[in-house]
Amino acid sequence: MPSKQIPIANPPPLAFPSPRQCPGTFCKAQGETSIGRRHWGTCPGLILVWSHLNLLIRNHDLDMIYVVGPGHGAPAALAALWLEGSLERFYPDEYGCNAEGLKNLITRFSVPGGFPSHINAETPGAIHEGGELGYALAVSFGAVMDNPDLIVTCVVGDGEAETGPTATAWHAIKYLDPRESGAVIPILHANGFKISERTIFGCMDDKEIVSLFSGYGYQVLVVENLDNIDDELQNALEWAVSEIKKIQKAARSGEPIAKPRWPMLVLRTPKARFIPASMERAGSDKEQLKALDDWLSSYKIGELIKDGKPTKTVLDVMPHTNEKKLGQHKATYNPYVGLKAVDWQYFGAKKGTSQSCMKLTGKLLDKVFQENPQTIRLFSPDELESNKLDALLEHTQRNFQWDQYSRANGGRVIEVLSEHNCQGFMQGYTLTGRTAIFPSYESFLGIVHTMMVQYSKFVKIAREVKWRGDLPSINYIETSTWARQEHNGFSHQNPSFIGAVLNIKPEAARVPVLSPTTNRAPPFRNWVN
Amino acid sequence: MPSKQIPIANPPPLAFPSPRQCPGTFCKAQGETSIGRRHWGTCPGLILVWSHLNLLIRNHDLDMIYVVGPGHGAPAALAALWLEGSLERFYPDEYGCNAEGLKNLITRFSVPGGFPSHINAETPGAIHEGGELGYALAVSFGAVMDNPDLIVTCVVGDGEAETGPTATAWHAIKYLDPRESGAVIPILHANGFKISERTIFGCMDDKEIVSLFSGYGYQVLVVENLDNIDDELQNALEWAVSEIKKIQKAARSGEPIAKPRWPMLVLRTPKARFIPASMERAGSDKEQLKALDDWLSSYKIGELIKDGKPTKTVLDVMPHTNEKKLGQHKATYNPYVGLKAVDWQYFGAKKGTSQSCMKLTGKLLDKVFQENPQTIRLFSPDELESNKLDALLEHTQRNFQWDQYSRANGGRVIEVLSEHNCQGFMQGYTLTGRTAIFPSYESFLGIVHTMMVQYSKFVKIAREVKWRGDLPSINYIETSTWARQEHNGFSHQNPSFIGAVLNIKPEAARVPVLSPTTNRAPPFRNWVN
């Protein structure tokens, strides 16, 4: 726990102004939440965090990205982006900081032509496709790799936390070298409910939660006192930043902490609190209309927005410069870092000879990685050697901070038996401009079938968004296809991943084929992307 | 810890006869493991557990299934199945308990026509397709649901434990009602290595592991003393059974324990221990051949098998009757439990009227579930209500033991935001003969694309295996297709799951289509299976 109270100059609007109440008891008392209530439930917490991050960035001049995991969380991001002027910067005609812009934001929301209700590539500051839950955390860790000054704050909803991909992504700290990489502040937002069922994490008590995440390797701080939620959250964030700096300072001064215990927060807030019990018929029912009006008026919007513009109270908690704002960090919209080219023809095999294309590819990769020491990584579900890419290990090694032998050695290879983590790390690393490669057996790449499809949606829209710059491709090397099944047999056969890539439009994906033995290694730019 | 030592009448062969050594240090000292070494690594632990389970079944007359998670674990299962005579029972011509059968087992292994190196439907006792790791644990929990006397012992490898699906499957105890369901004894087998990289769990110390799994809700016992591994493992298994019986007794006498802390074991053994450093060229190199011979001879196979038959020493630790043997439990090979039929026409809509087909389906399901109170379940990623199936909740409810409101009420619906858990539960429930339904949005069913494909491989082979009986179908209700996107939009679009089902041969899969409004509810037997 932080020992000193950090003064908050201009406290952001309170999302939860009244006394603490047990989330479960509250919601049970109110009966089941309606669709509107449950989708709204995540937004107050997201905005609360956004407001406090603004202050944190101001206090420490941080480079920060905010990854919003919870489903239907876009309204929170969009409101904050409008307030901080990021929507105005990227959409000056539609969403200016004025009455017209505010009206457009509200009336076009979640209808064709407006912003969708999930975070997507149209959302400034976003490096993550919302909707299909589970990937926010792994993406966040990928983004901070080789970005030593970057901190990604990642909110994981307690619904999303039930997914397998998130459940294993908590282990990602074990692959994060504080000497060369930045840090993630994970915030588990436990508001007690998914759409209509209670959540696992909402029904775990603090002892269970602290035990679980301590086991993962974190220091855990639970923020839950609604009487004093602003101070508590701000102090917790200050504590997280100071813990991160300690770990990084130690590693960067040559004395890395073994198994550093990174900070994480658990934010407990009740879902759908203060929403009127009934408001579905507010369009025709005067009582419901009044209840709705009373509720919305309780936010005192007039103190926050005047004449269609955010007031000084709001603007004073923003970061000092535009590029520090959560919606305008350059790494989120114009991050492209090129690779130094390598003469691939040198790695060809002589005509008439027969060599393993994978062995040759390994040698080419070895050279590419040597020439680009901080801008390329390989993620693999422990199949580097069985895929004959081991030549890559001649000048680099594996990176696994929990293993004393690979700690703090700058290894470029992460081998974790989670295709979801491999894909998530690759996405985060790529969407912040660097290049990643994911080799895997053909049958098991399908494990991330939908992640790949969701990612391609993000990229498709990103290419249509004018203010986003180029992105590197994500690169798979699909191996162990039907022609090379050897001893593994039926369980290792499934060609559907390539089928899914081929379904994507040609401007977004390419699929070159290597024969098992070849007389020429492939040009680097031609892999599946 | 158990207080009394359970005497072991006839100790099974020791897999690890010599002093304890740190797995990491050992393997690092020996250099990287070769493919043979690493694939062999899991088998000693699996056989050790199998042997002790035999004794446990004898001691307590248990109904038990053994689910083997680790990849390339089939040799362990096959050896044990041959020893206990289960291979002879199901394959009398090929794998009898005699010299010819033993020779066939060895020479045909992992070549066309023989058993594969991963567990599959040809393996007696198996209810789980091996190879694609991550699903053993969820399948085990599905199998014990509504099987009050069944215990599934599930070994999860420390490679598999890194997968997302496994990471969230540990939460499955929270959906297990001890009043009506059996229990799982999960054994995390931490041998330190995957194929070539260290594992996360192998590099976590006991404090981290105990903290993590206590947080999940377990009581954890670490078995790691190689000097005395047999006694320690047997005592740990005895303890697990006694804890299970306590929890079940309390629940079944009407006084359920809130948040019961189910037992689990962590078994630490070093991988590839005692294997000669080099044996790849044993066919031509005399030194390597001698090293290989010395190593194999150290197992004193002559004391275990004589004249091609298991000796009395081995047979004396087997369960008393065939049906109690791990390879011959009826629930694993002939489990079919039919459903009482319901007159579906009653739930049709009148000609000329328009009704939601999902609402009608919900009403039909309500009736089906009433008529079959212990043999049908629904698993959903919290989409029951948004999919308009809420009529089902009129006579049953959700089942979530961590929530006081749904504890011990026999709810037939589990809503967990993990498609992997939903699919795994459904597979385990179905492969032990009962019927399950999994409704989900079209775009997110693809999350379990490869699980569904692997399951269909198991079923395809199971239908070809003569000694396996009929199985119920697994049933998806795919909703929110392109025609019903409403506010969710692009992120919720992906029709590829149906495409994957259509790729499966028609004798294994059917896909009927319902229009959003219909004048007839579908006959129950015609859903996607």
Automatic annotation (TrEMBL), chains A, B:
One of its GO terms (molecular function) is aldehyde-lyase activity. One of its GO terms (biological process) is carbohydrate metabolic process. Gene3D superfamilies: 3.40.50.970. SUPFAM superfamilies: Thiamin diphosphate-binding fold (THDP-binding). It holds the Pfam family XFP_N. Residues 39-335 form the Xylulose 5-phosphate/Fructose 6-phosphate phosphoketolase N-terminal domain. It comes from the Eukaryota. PANTHER family: PHOSPHOKETOLASE-RELATED. This is Xylulose 5-phosphate/Fructose 6-phosphate phosphoketolase N-terminal domain-containing protein.
